[in-house]
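Fold this complex.
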Amino acid sequence: MIAPPDDIDRIMSVMEQAFSPEYGEAWNRRQVSDALVVGSCRYGLIGADGAEQLSEEADTAGFFMSRGILDEEELLLFAIAPQYRRRGLGHILLSRFIVSAKNNGMSRIFLEMRRGNPAAFLYAAHGFHEIGVRPSYYRTPDGNRIDAISQELSFQD
Ligand SMILES: CC(C)(COP(=O)(O)OP(=O)(O)OC[C@H]1O[C@@H](n2cnc3c(N)ncnc32)[C@H](O)[C@@H]1OP(=O)(O)O)[C@@H](O)C(=O)NCCC(=O)NCCS
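Structure:
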Protein backbone atom coordinates (compact mmCIF):
# COMPACT_ATOMS: atom_id res chain seq x y z
CA MET A 1 0.00 0.00 0.00
CA ILE A 2 1.81 3.11 -1.21
CA ALA A 3 1.38 6.08 1.13
CA PRO A 4 1.38 9.67 -0.17
CA PRO A 5 4.19 11.78 1.38
CA ASP A 6 1.62 13.73 3.42
CA ASP A 7 0.48 10.54 5.11
CA ILE A 8 4.08 9.56 5.86
CA ASP A 9 4.50 13.02 7.46
CA ARG A 10 1.41 12.32 9.56
CA ILE A 11 2.68 8.91 10.64
CA MET A 12 6.11 10.35 11.52
CA SER A 13 4.66 13.22 13.53
CA VAL A 14 2.89 10.71 15.79
CA MET A 15 5.83 8.27 15.77
CA GLU A 16 8.24 10.93 17.03
CA GLN A 17 6.05 11.75 20.02
CA ALA A 18 4.46 8.43 20.88
CA PHE A 19 7.29 5.97 21.49
CA SER A 20 9.70 6.29 24.38
CA PRO A 21 13.30 6.38 23.01
CA GLU A 22 14.21 4.08 25.90
CA TYR A 23 12.93 0.99 24.10
CA GLY A 24 13.96 1.77 20.51
CA GLU A 25 10.48 0.89 19.21
CA ALA A 26 10.00 3.85 16.85
CA TRP A 27 10.78 3.45 13.15
CA ASN A 28 12.49 6.13 11.07
CA ARG A 29 10.97 7.65 7.94
CA ARG A 30 12.98 5.43 5.63
CA GLN A 31 11.79 2.26 7.40
CA VAL A 32 8.17 3.42 7.16
CA SER A 33 8.28 4.41 3.49
CA ASP A 34 10.23 1.29 2.50
CA ALA A 35 7.72 -0.94 4.32
CA LEU A 36 4.78 0.76 2.65
CA VAL A 37 6.22 0.14 -0.80
CA VAL A 38 5.73 -3.56 -0.11
CA GLY A 39 2.22 -4.47 -1.22
CA SER A 40 1.49 -6.51 1.90
CA CYS A 41 1.96 -3.55 4.30
CA ARG A 42 -0.98 -1.37 5.21
CA TYR A 43 -1.60 1.65 7.43
CA GLY A 44 -4.47 3.61 8.90
CA LEU A 45 -4.72 7.05 10.44
CA ILE A 46 -7.05 8.56 13.02
CA GLY A 47 -7.73 12.26 13.42
CA ALA A 48 -8.05 14.06 16.73
CA ASP A 49 -11.82 13.99 16.16
CA GLY A 50 -11.78 10.22 15.52
CA ALA A 51 -12.12 10.61 11.75
CA GLU A 52 -10.62 8.00 9.45
CA GLN A 53 -10.27 10.24 6.38
CA LEU A 54 -8.24 13.23 7.47
CA SER A 55 -8.60 16.62 5.84
CA GLU A 56 -5.42 18.60 5.16
CA GLU A 57 -5.84 20.79 8.25
CA ALA A 58 -6.88 17.98 10.62
CA ASP A 59 -4.59 17.04 13.48
CA THR A 60 -3.40 13.45 13.28
CA ALA A 61 -3.88 11.68 16.61
CA GLY A 62 -2.62 8.20 15.76
CA PHE A 63 -1.85 5.51 13.24
CA PHE A 64 -1.30 1.78 12.76
CA MET A 65 0.90 -0.14 10.37
CA SER A 66 0.50 -3.82 9.64
CA ARG A 67 1.66 -6.54 7.29
CA GLY A 68 -0.33 -9.43 5.90
CA ILE A 69 1.27 -12.79 5.29
CA LEU A 70 -1.05 -15.46 3.92
CA ASP A 71 -4.08 -15.38 6.25
CA GLU A 72 -2.27 -13.67 9.13
CA GLU A 73 -2.06 -9.91 9.72
CA GLU A 74 0.78 -8.71 11.92
CA LEU A 75 0.30 -5.41 13.75
CA LEU A 76 3.72 -3.78 13.40
CA LEU A 77 3.12 -0.36 14.94
CA PHE A 78 0.19 1.14 16.82
CA ALA A 79 0.26 4.56 18.49
CA ILE A 80 -1.76 7.51 19.67
CA ALA A 81 0.11 10.79 20.29
CA PRO A 82 0.43 11.57 24.02
CA GLN A 83 -1.84 14.64 23.97
CA TYR A 84 -4.74 12.59 22.56
CA ARG A 85 -4.54 9.55 24.86
CA ARG A 86 -7.22 8.23 27.22
CA ARG A 87 -10.08 9.56 25.11
CA GLY A 88 -10.98 6.27 23.48
CA LEU A 89 -9.11 6.90 20.21
CA GLY A 90 -6.96 3.80 20.71
CA HIS A 91 -10.16 1.72 21.03
CA ILE A 92 -11.59 3.24 17.84
CA LEU A 93 -8.42 2.77 15.80
CA LEU A 94 -7.89 -0.81 17.00
CA SER A 95 -11.52 -1.70 16.20
CA ARG A 96 -11.10 -0.31 12.67
CA PHE A 97 -7.88 -2.25 12.19
CA ILE A 98 -9.49 -5.51 13.37
CA VAL A 99 -12.51 -5.05 11.10
CA SER A 100 -10.30 -4.25 8.11
CA ALA A 101 -8.11 -7.33 8.72
CA LYS A 102 -11.23 -9.49 8.92
CA ASN A 103 -12.66 -7.93 5.76
CA ASN A 104 -9.37 -8.64 4.00
CA GLY A 105 -9.90 -12.33 4.69
CA MET A 106 -7.39 -12.72 7.52
CA SER A 107 -8.07 -15.49 10.02
CA ARG A 108 -5.70 -14.22 12.70
CA ILE A 109 -3.96 -11.07 13.93
CA PHE A 110 -0.57 -11.33 15.58
CA LEU A 111 1.40 -8.73 17.51
CA GLU A 112 4.36 -8.47 19.81
CA MET A 113 4.64 -6.04 22.72
CA ARG A 114 6.90 -5.19 25.60
CA ARG A 115 5.82 -6.73 28.91
CA GLY A 116 4.26 -4.07 31.11
CA ASN A 117 3.10 -1.84 28.25
CA PRO A 118 -0.35 -0.43 29.19
CA ALA A 119 -1.38 -1.26 25.62
CA ALA A 120 -1.93 -4.79 26.99
CA PHE A 121 -5.22 -3.61 28.56
CA LEU A 122 -6.36 -2.26 25.21
CA TYR A 123 -5.46 -5.46 23.36
CA ALA A 124 -7.12 -7.63 26.03
CA ALA A 125 -10.32 -5.57 25.75
CA HIS A 126 -10.43 -6.48 22.05
CA GLY A 127 -9.96 -10.20 22.63
CA PHE A 128 -6.21 -10.66 22.15
CA HIS A 129 -4.54 -13.29 24.29
CA GLU A 130 -0.95 -14.20 25.05
CA ILE A 131 0.54 -17.02 22.99
CA GLY A 132 4.22 -16.77 23.78
CA VAL A 133 7.09 -14.99 25.46
CA ARG A 134 10.55 -14.08 24.21
CA PRO A 135 12.44 -13.69 27.48
CA SER A 136 14.60 -10.55 27.84
CA TYR A 137 14.03 -9.61 24.19
CA TYR A 138 14.21 -5.83 24.72
CA ARG A 139 17.20 -4.18 26.33
CA THR A 140 16.98 -0.63 27.72
CA PRO A 141 20.01 1.72 27.64
CA ASP A 142 20.44 1.21 31.41
CA GLY A 143 20.85 -2.52 30.88
CA ASN A 144 17.39 -3.71 31.96
CA ARG A 145 15.93 -6.58 30.02
CA ILE A 146 12.24 -6.84 29.27
CA ASP A 147 10.30 -9.77 27.82
CA ALA A 148 8.49 -9.54 24.51
CA ILE A 149 4.96 -10.92 24.69
CA SER A 150 3.33 -12.37 21.58
CA GLN A 151 -0.42 -12.03 21.36
CA GLU A 152 -3.03 -13.15 18.90
CA LEU A 153 -6.62 -12.57 18.02
CA SER A 154 -8.11 -15.45 16.11
CA PHE A 155 -11.28 -15.07 14.07
CA GLN A 156 -11.77 -18.83 14.01
CA ASP A 157 -12.51 -19.27 17.76
C1 LIG B 1 -1.41 2.18 23.92
C2 LIG B 1 -2.00 3.43 23.29
C3 LIG B 1 -2.12 3.25 21.79
C4 LIG B 1 -3.41 3.65 23.89
O1 LIG B 1 -4.02 4.76 23.23
P1 LIG B 1 -5.24 5.57 23.89
O2 LIG B 1 -5.85 6.44 22.85
O3 LIG B 1 -4.81 6.21 25.14
O4 LIG B 1 -6.24 4.40 24.20
P2 LIG B 1 -7.75 4.55 24.74
O5 LIG B 1 -8.01 5.91 25.30
O6 LIG B 1 -8.66 4.09 23.65
O7 LIG B 1 -7.73 3.51 25.92
C5 LIG B 1 -7.73 2.15 25.63
C6 LIG B 1 -7.50 1.31 26.87
O8 LIG B 1 -6.12 1.12 27.04
C7 LIG B 1 -5.82 1.03 28.43
N1 LIG B 1 -4.84 2.05 28.71
C8 LIG B 1 -4.35 2.97 27.83
N2 LIG B 1 -3.39 3.69 28.43
C9 LIG B 1 -3.27 3.22 29.68
C10 LIG B 1 -2.42 3.55 30.78
N3 LIG B 1 -1.53 4.53 30.71
N4 LIG B 1 -2.57 2.85 31.91
C11 LIG B 1 -3.47 1.85 32.00
N5 LIG B 1 -4.30 1.49 30.99
C12 LIG B 1 -4.19 2.16 29.85
C13 LIG B 1 -7.12 1.20 29.18
O9 LIG B 1 -7.62 -0.09 29.44
C14 LIG B 1 -7.99 1.90 28.15
O10 LIG B 1 -9.32 1.61 28.24
P3 LIG B 1 -10.27 2.43 29.23
O11 LIG B 1 -9.89 3.89 29.09
O12 LIG B 1 -11.61 2.10 28.70
O13 LIG B 1 -9.96 1.92 30.59
C15 LIG B 1 -1.14 4.68 23.62
O14 LIG B 1 -0.93 4.74 25.02
C16 LIG B 1 0.21 4.69 22.92
O15 LIG B 1 0.33 5.15 21.78
N6 LIG B 1 1.28 4.23 23.60
C17 LIG B 1 2.67 4.32 23.06
C18 LIG B 1 2.88 3.45 21.85
C19 LIG B 1 2.70 2.00 22.19
O16 LIG B 1 3.22 1.50 23.17
N7 LIG B 1 1.93 1.29 21.33
C20 LIG B 1 1.67 -0.11 21.48
C21 LIG B 1 2.81 -0.89 20.96
S1 LIG B 1 2.57 -2.62 21.24
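Residues 18-19, 78-80, 85-91, 113, 117-119, 121-122, 125 surround coenzyme A (CB under 6 Å).
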